[in-house]
């Protein structure tokens, strides 16, 4: 699709078996919650303000996720005190008698108690997050951030640059993928956590941070970097090549990393470019997409259907709320394939299930994460946040997603070993399908057997006859 915006590097091909949803949320938190100036992917969805694009069958408008805590009444305070008085007794005894007082930390005990209550619910989506982690996990929903423009992770105790974004201050200053950060502003980070590293490297646009990095070739370099506001589209157009490594121009490939406030606008631009290039087939890649804003998910999905139901929410009282988009877009007439895997969660599952239910897309890949839960963040008195599961969502055709996932129409598991391990076989299968060249494994095996039989017959006819 040569006329689409300049493609950026494709996301890594998915590997390994499907993890359970709890592990998925932890993975997202670890890998995505520490993007430097890029922000992080939410580990749970946050229902945002539902404006005119969302129609509710209940005729209600949901309140924007609350950030102000209402004060408790004296009665509530008294009830709470009596309800958890036994915890105070345990705390006082441990504080007075525990043999190793150095390991007694009130904050850790409090967090452990909170997590114990949450764990007893058996719901992997209800979660407690401290104030700083909440700030980090919330910064990217607007689609822009202040920082240096790269992501990091902790590999064997070393804070390592994972991705440097094109055009970012980090790239202009010489930071490379795979660099290990040794110092920040002259201070060794050998004992720093990921969270601390992110806090120190981020900062207001126009300010400078100095990083001492070790490049992959072993050389060390001190890099002053002027922070800036980083705008990172959640939607990208990626190049395609087929099985023969030939460039593909008749099919578009759009990768949606998450659903943010800018996702629909970014998508509209790419769809217009595809229409101008006479591209009528599209692969939508939501592998490793953990979700995002509900409104953005509905609006983005609505670009491919016309005033159809996108999802249904079932609340604790059994009441149902229906969401639909009020318009279609340039994607309505396009032939679609959606790529999914075990890390496609929440909003990604909403899109995949809705477009299949309406006959708009074929799903290729692996069963998704199975997060069919709507979560609302409740701000606590110290700035920390309790994400509470407030509703379950189901597909337009009332298919349950929670704990089950969205099943692909064509299951393709990414190999971990062998010659195909370095190939994106799910993407190649999608290309074959849209070109009418896909053969199910059983059909392909039958075809090979038939070809072999025909060859045997031909050889028998040509062989000399024994008299």
Description:
With 467 residues, this protein is of the alpha+beta class. The chain folds into three domains: 74-127, no CATH class; 144-231, Pdz3 Domain (Roll); 233-434, 2-enoyl-CoA Hydratase, Chain A, domain 1. It is 29% helix and 22% strand. The protein is built from twelve helices and 20 strands. The strands form five sheets. A six-stranded mixed beta sheet has the order 11-12-13-16-17-20, with helices on both faces. A hairpin with a 5-residue loop joins strand 8 (208-214) and strand 9. It is globular, with a radius of gyration of 26 Å. The termini are far apart. Residues 1-70 and 458-467 have low confidence and may be disordered.
List the uncertain runs. 1-70, 458-467
Sheet-strand content, in percent, reads: 15-25%
- Looking across the biggest beta sheet, what order are the strands in? 11-12-13-16-17-20
Number of domains: 3
Indicate the structural class. alpha+beta
Rounded to an integer, what's the Rg over CA atoms?
A: 26 Å
Short description:
By secondary structure, the protein is an alpha+beta fold. Helix content is 29%, strand content 22%. It is built from 12 helices and 20 strands.
Helices, strands, pairings?
Layout: H1 21-32, E1 35-36, H2 74-83, H3 85-97, H4 106-119, E2 127-129, H5 131-138, E3 144-147, E4 150-155, E5 158-164, H6 169-173, E6 180-184, E7 187-188, H7 194-201, E8 208-214, E9 220-226, E10 228-231, E11 235-237, E12 251-256, H8 263-276, E13 281-285, H9 294-301, E14 309-315, E15 320-324, E16 335-340, H10 347-357, E17 361-365, E18 373-379, E19 385-394, E20 410-411, H11 425-434, H12 441-462
């Amino acid at each position: 699709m040569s006329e689409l915006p300049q493609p950026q590097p494709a996301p890594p091909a998915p590997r390994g078996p499907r993890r359970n949803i709890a592990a998925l949320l932890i993975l997202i938190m670890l890998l995505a919650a520490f993007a430097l100036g890029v922000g992080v992917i939410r580990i749970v969805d946050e229902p945002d303000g539902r404006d005119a694009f969302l129609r509710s069958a209940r005729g209600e408008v949901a309140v924007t996720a609350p950030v102000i805590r209402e004060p408790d009444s004296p009665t509530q305070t008294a009830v709470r005190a009596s309800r958890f008085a036994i915890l105070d007794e345990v705390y006082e005894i441990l504080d007075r008698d525990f043999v190793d007082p150095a390991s007694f930390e009130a904050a850790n005990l409090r967090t452990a108690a909170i997590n114990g209550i949450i764990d007893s619910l058996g719901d992997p989506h209800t979660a407690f997050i401290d104030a700083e982690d909440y700030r980090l996990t919330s910064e990217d929903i607007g689609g822009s951030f202040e920082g240096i423009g790269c992501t990091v992770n902790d590999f064997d105790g070393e804070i390592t640059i994972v991705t440097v974004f094109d055009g970012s201050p980090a790239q202009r200053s010489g930071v490379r993928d795979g660099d290990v950060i040794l110092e920040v502003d002259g201070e060794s980070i050998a004992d720093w956590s990921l969270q601390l590293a992110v806090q120190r490297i981020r900062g207001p646009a126009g300010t400078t941070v100095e990083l001492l990095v070790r490049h992959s070739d072993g050389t060390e370099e001190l890099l002053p970097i002027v922070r800036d506001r980083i705008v990172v589209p959640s939607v990208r157009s990626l190049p395609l090549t087929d099985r023969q490594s030939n460039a593909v121009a008749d099919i578009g490939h759009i990768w949606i990393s998450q659903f943010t406030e800018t996702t629909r606008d970014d998508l509209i631009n790419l769809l217009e470019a595809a229409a101008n290039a006479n591209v009528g087939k599209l692969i939508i890649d939501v592998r490793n997409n953990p979700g995002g804003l509900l409104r953005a998910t509905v609006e983005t999905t609505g670009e491919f259907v016309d005033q159809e139901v996108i999802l249904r929410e079932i609340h604790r009282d059994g009441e149902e709320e229906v969401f639909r988009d009020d318009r279609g877009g340039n994607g309505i007439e396009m032939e679609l394939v959606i790529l999914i895997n075990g890390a496609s969660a929440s909003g990604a599952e909403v899109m995949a299930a809705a477009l299949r239910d309406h006959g708009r897309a074929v799903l290729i890949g692996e069963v998704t994460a199975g997060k069919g839960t709507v979560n609302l963040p409740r701000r606590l008195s110290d700035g920390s946040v309790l994400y509470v599961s407030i509703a379950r969502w189901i597909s337009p055709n009332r298919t349950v997603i929670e704990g089950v996932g969205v099943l692909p129409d064509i299951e393709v598991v990414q190999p971990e070993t062998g010659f195909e391990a370095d190939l994106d076989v799910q993407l190649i299968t999608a290309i074959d399908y849209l070109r009418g060249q896909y053969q199910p494994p059983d059909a392909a095996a039958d075809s090979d057997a038939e070809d072999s039989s025909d060859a045997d017959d031909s050889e028998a006819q040509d062989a000399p006859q024994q008299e």
